[in-house]
Amino acid sequence: MARRLPRLLGQAWLLAWRADRRTSVALVVAQIVGGVASAVGMISVVGVLDGLLRDGPTPERVRAAVPSLLLFVGASAVRSALESAGAAANGRLTPQVSQEAEMRLLTLTTRVELSTFDDPAWRDAMQRARSRGASAAAQLVNQAIQLVTNVVGLIAAAGVLAVLHPVLLPLLVLTVLPVGWAAVRSARLDHRRFVRLIAVWRRESMLSGLLADREAAPELRAFTLRTYLLGEVRRMIGISTRQEIQVAAQQVRTRMAGAALGAAATGLTYGVLLWLLWTGRMDLAVGGAAAYAISLGISRLSQITYAANTVFQQGLYFADFEGFCELSRARAEPEPGGVAPPAFHEIELRDVTFSYPDAEQPAVREMTLTLRRGEVIALVGENGSGKSTLAALLAGLYRPQEGAVLWDGVDAAGFDPESVRERVAVVMQEPTRWPLTARQNIGIGRQERVAGMAEVRAAARAGDADEFIMELKRRYETLLSRHFTDGADLSGGQWQRLAVSRAFYRDAPLLICDEPTANLDARAEHDVYQRLRELAAGRTVVLITHRMASVREADRIYVLDHGVLAEQGGHAELMEAGGIYAQMFTLQASAYQSA
């Protein structure tokens, strides 16, 4: 603790300074001045006792004690007022520190490369940072302030004891060392348990969430998964419970040993004080002041031990937070400074290879292909062939580990990723169901401009979403989530059409559609493809689909097989070649032919 405490206090101060400089300075001043008032109060006790215990008539002794008594009362009043002011300042500062830490966490999480989310070690680190690390930041600042306050008070008590009799000071410190040792050991045991169980808690949380999730509820019941999933959750909780019981028993034994040793040291301290009085080495007035200082010092030491232990303990969790931040900064997307052009004539993938973390084989290997403005490009292949990964590379969501993505001959690695993605509209197979209003769900397609209703409705009509939106309770201002009052939910097909509308509103030069009609009926699918062809005028459309009839009119078809470009050409050319595409098309077409 002694080794790590200065660095932790420095981190706490830096957090507080970033959150609110003025309040941080006011808090420090209040603590220091309060400590000085505490010291003055303790010194005045010596004057009070000296006046009361001197020889002479009682009225004279009382009059002699009054100045010191007034000084004591005044110092106590000042200290109480400053403690109240410090508590108020701390009440303002702590929530701001929590906000600062939470926003820092989310900012870094959303800046990492997308492939980082496929790394289990990073996800464990993120879970540790989110579950305890961010809250530990506020606790670290709060307890650091308490620690400084009590240290100032202890210095005052120690100064008084050193003046009264030097031997009492080391004995005072001795009383708290066993308790401090027990607290540090207990904190380490708790943190080790936390690190050891984080993956178990993450899995248990995921399964518990599915048991209570509206989207998972139909399949949970349809496949009678309730008993099985409850058993898995029970097993995860059982592992955690056994570990917690074991650690709790170790902590109790440690604290009992520390408390016993601390009580023995306290008895020794008061024994020495009585011996000094018995042998005449200390006056009675001085002895009374020393007893008061020892009592106050032990109280301050106990509070320091608690605060230091909490700082140390929260520091362990804050170290997880800091470690995750460092890891996320190392995994952050580069910001080379270039800006992608507002439009392009040609995008070329040249010998591009990409692998997911810990994957044995690349998802895309030595891929070379070209997209030209105004073309409709189709990517086809079996599941796992690399279609969605290739689309993510085109959209700037992933960076190739080998090769390059060129925009009009310029390597996109020199562009800021955000500027690349602003030139792309993506329709996902399973679009995110944002808990926003219908208007916002479409308007977030382009955040740099205010979503005007005329433009939003035009995009909704283009995506065939306007009709069902107008049937909602509050129309375009309806919140699309059943989790909130007056919220509404949509069917899978309606969410898909909303996503297509968002792509129309984005109005980007490159449109990537990953199974855009997966949840639509035949008529709606036909209408969407008609509108996509209209949107393709002057733009480039990349279409990923398993429905082979949808790609017949594409300008060029790329056939992927296990991450490799196996075939390319037009529909007629590929059918004549009799390769993978012809087999897939013929197999699917046969399902629609009468027996």
TrEMBL record:
Organism: Paractinoplanes bogorensis
Compartment annotation: Cell membrane
TM stretches of this protein: 31-53, 140-161, 167-184, 259-278
Main location: membrane
Species lineage: Bacteria, Bacillati, Actinomycetota, Actinomycetes, Micromonosporales
Keyword Endoplasmic reticulum among record annotations: no
PANTHER family according to UniProt: ATP-BINDING CASSETTE SUB-FAMILY B, HAEMOLYSIN SECRETION ATP-BINDING PROTEIN
Membrane-related topology note: Multi-pass membrane protein
Pfam families, sorted: ABC_tran
Name of the featured protein: ABC transporter ATP-binding protein/permease
GO molecular-function terms, A-Z: ATP binding
